Amino acid sequence: MFGQNREELRRFYKTSWDKRCAGEPLQPLERLVAEVVAQHPEYHTLLSGSGALQRDFDATDGEVNPWLHMGMHVTLGEQITADRPPGIRGIYHRIMLRLGDAHSTEHAMMDCLGMSLWEAQRANALPDERHYIDCLKKLGG
Predict the structure, then answer these.
(1) How many other C-beta atoms lie within 10 A of the C-beta of residue 49?
(2) pTM of the entire structure?
(3) 117 with 93: CB under 8 angstroms?
């Protein structure tokens, strides 16, 4: 979606949400981001202020990084739409049949996505799509 500019990415989330709240037309990616934000009312206050764009979140203190959380939803949405890695769309639908709703399904899938990204970062390599898909298949039953 964007490079490594954290503030630019966060501003895009805020702008997308502001446009949705104002009833303005949205581009497809803005629509996806705004839908993710809409599913997380606990973050609406965060997006209403400007200080959150610079704030650091420390997972070692048990604090959830809302930007990472929403970003993982957006990533999954893009992956499912594009069926990339191949097969993820079908796996998503199987998990959703078992869990009953899209939001819970994405939360379950985030564990595999997070692990895949963590392993790639640790190895200084691209994520292993096969390992990621295998992890997701285990969720699909």
Answers:
(1) 10
(2) 0.89
(3) no
